[in-house]
Each structure stands twice: as structure tokens, then as C-alpha cells.
Design goal:
- Helix content is 91%, strand content 0%.
- The chain is mainly α and 77 residues long.
- The chain has two domains: 32 residues; 42 residues.
- The longest helix is centred in the C-terminal third of the chain and has 40 residues.
- It is elongated and about 80 Å long.
- The termini are far apart.
Length: 77
């Protein structure tokens, strides 16, 4: 009987913890200041530009190392 009560209390605590997490999450989401449409578009464009720039940089570096590898391999015969 005591074991069953202990299991029930443990399960009840887990349920209360879950409810508390959901409640706290909703409370925090209410505090968030969401960007307006103009800000969201501007920030999206910035992310796309930075992503493309990093992609071009990585492509250039990869190509440079490929040429270097091919050149070094040609020296060894």
C-alpha cells in the first residue's frame, strides 16, 4: 500500500511539473516582443545574404584547397 502511494505521489509530481513547465512557457511567450512584418523581412534578408556570403567563402576555400591538392599531387608524379 505504501509503495503504491509513493508511486502515485511520484506520478502526481511529474504531472504537476509538466503543467508548471507548460504554464511557465506560455507566460514567457507572452513577454516576447515579436518583430513586425518589416523587421522580419529585413532580418530574413540579412540572414540570406550572410548565408550566401559564407557559402561563397567556403566554396572558394574548398576550390583553392582542391587546386592545391591537385598541384601537389602532380609534383609527386
Amino acid at each position: 500500500m505504501a509503495v503504491a502511494n509513493a508511486k502515485d505521489k511520484g506520478k502526481e509530481r511529474q504531472e504537476h511539473a509538466f503543467v508548471r513547465v507548460v504554464h511557465d512557457t506560455r507566460a514567457e511567450l507572452r513577454k516576447v516582443v515579436w518583430p513586425n512584418r518589416k523587421e522580419a523581412i529585413r532580418l530574413t534578408v540579412v540572414v540570406i545574404i550572410i548565408s550566401v556570403a559564407i557559402g561563397v567563402f567556403l566554396f572558394a576555400g574548398d576550390t583553392l584547397f582542391l587546386w592545391l591538392y591537385i598541384w601537389l599531387e602532380s609534383l609527386t608524379g
